[in-house]
Amino acid sequence: MEFYIDTADLAQIKEAMSWGILEGVTTNPSIVAREKRGFEELIREIARETPGKVWCEVIGTDADTMVEEARMFRNWADRVVVKLPMGAEGVKAASRLSKEGIETNMTLVYSVGQAVLAAKAGVRYVSPYLGRVDDVAWSGATLIGGIVETFARLGLPTKVIAASVRGPQQVLDMLNLGVHAVTTSYSVWAAMMKHPMTDIGLEGFLRDWKEAGL
Length: 214
Ligand code: E4P
Known about the structure:
- The protein is of the alpha/beta class and about 210 residues long.
- Helix content is about 55%, strand content about 20%.
- An eight-stranded parallel β-barrel has the order 1-2-3-4-5-6-7-8, surrounded by eight helices.
- Helix 6 (about 110-120) links the parallel strand 5 and strand 6.
- Bound molecules: erythose-4-phosphate (E4P).
- Erythose-4-phosphate (E4P) binds near residues 28, 163 and 164.
- This is Transaldolase.
- It is found in: Cytoplasm.
């Protein structure tokens, strides 16, 4: 069970990593763009704050450029997972990078067929997008459950990371489907830690303690 925070916001990363329960940080080009800072400088800084993996996505659209970018990311952060977009060029790049021993993730996976091809190319992880499938009135859970079952049936070592996860209940739904990893925002992890009864209970304990004057 691997948990990641899906952000490039350093304040959120620092706080979330201090919880000691996350395996690292996932990013994508939209998430990085939001920070309005140099890509390399930002990734190096995230890597300094993160004892675990730092996931970084290529911008290139052909396999040669993707492979070059992957090698460059590896220099920025040695614990990098290189995210490649699903498609022929991404598959080509994944086949080459897996032979070089660079850990990869196939992102933007929307079918079991895509996931199987990515696994065959040697990626370590595939990212199906739960929320974005639900947004277009289909079932992200059905897709992700199908990938998990197919990988298990075929004995594939590729891990499934649920992406585009937008609430604490969805995290649990994904874990119950058997995904190996989940990435989601700071606010979802923080919400998962909270319960109003916990707050009420703690307030009561502290009040009783104070009133007893011990
Ligand atoms: C994973 O890294 C994905 O890029 C991310 O989870 C997408 O989430 P969103 O659909 O909420 O943008």
